[in-house]
Amino acid sequence: MGNDEDQTQKQNSKKRKQVFPYGNYRSYYGYRIGQGVDEDPRLKVFRKEWFEGKECLDIGCNNGIITIQIAQKFHCRSILGIDIDSDRVQDAYWNLRKTVRLKSTGNKPAKAAKLKDQEHTDNSENSVTVLSNANAKEISKEPPLEQTDLLDIVSFKRENFVQSRHPPGKHYDTIICLSVTKWIHLNWGDDGLITLFAETWKLLRPGGILVLEPQPWKSYESNRLVSETTAANYRNIMFHPDQFQEILLDKIGFRTVEEITSGVTGSKTGFNRPILVFQK
Q: Which of 29, 46, 85, 187 can pair with 24 through a Cys bridge, CB separation 3.0 to 4.6 Å?
């Protein structure tokens, strides 16, 4: 009995000490969204014309909940969610299949705060790093046309955006990058941040939209010590978040910017961040 208690304490200690150097938290949307909220509150200020019939990219999608909600609410032509953590990508496909199952059986989707990744009991599913849409369709057991379309529209993959080579012919109409800049900045410094901005500009079609939610500088301090790399980069960062708008307009080449933050309600304290919309 004593050995079992010791083992449990060790496991709990490991959970408490788990570090997420890229902001790749489990159940992230449960952390930031208030209870009783049906959808991510940021969607209330997003405009249909940015997404409807458009090809979209979600950089740093985590467990895919907002990616899926955008596809459902705004009817994208396609939306790809990418994340550096293969576990979060696996969670995203799990959430996609769950959404399809709930819809196909006529159940209402769970609240946004509850629709989050869980401990999956199927060991064979846990062994899969990235699931294809074909696998997602098979597991969902031939849902109605509307749900099949969702599986055709939404996809996920593991990718380190700032270190990837993007196909020269691939372009998007809308790119969203929500609460990701800090983690790229801390892990890859100013060079990584500029790469993020420059690559999003290149990937957007003329007139394309970048929806950016940068974290404030004060939040960098609380995460600067998650690794030796982040600690070193924090000391050397020259570009602060209050300069991002100027960099994107004057250096990168975006034509216009609009702040849409004022309409966002429902986020937990500490997550009321500016949302900036840049047009190429």
A: 85
- pLDDT tens per residue across span 15-63: 445 565 545 455 544 444 444 446 788 999 999 999 999 999 999 999 9
pTM of the predicted model over 0.90: no
Report residue 45 as tokens: 């200020």
In order of 16, 67, 78, 178, the CA distances from 70 in angstroms are 32, 5, 10, 13
Return the HEC string of 110-159: CCCCCCCCCCCCCHHHHCCCCCCHHHHHHHCCCCCHHHHHHHHHEEEEEC
Per-residue pLDDT tens for 83-101?
999 999 999 999 999 999 9
Summary count for the chain: helices (H), strands (E): 12, 7
Integer Cα distance of 197 and 162 in angstroms: 9
The β-bridge relationship of strands 204-213 and 154-158 is: unpaired
Q: Do 52 and 209 meet the contact criterion of CB atoms below 8 Å apart?
A: no
Burial (Cβ within 10 Å: 0-12, 13-18, ≥19) of residue 32: buried
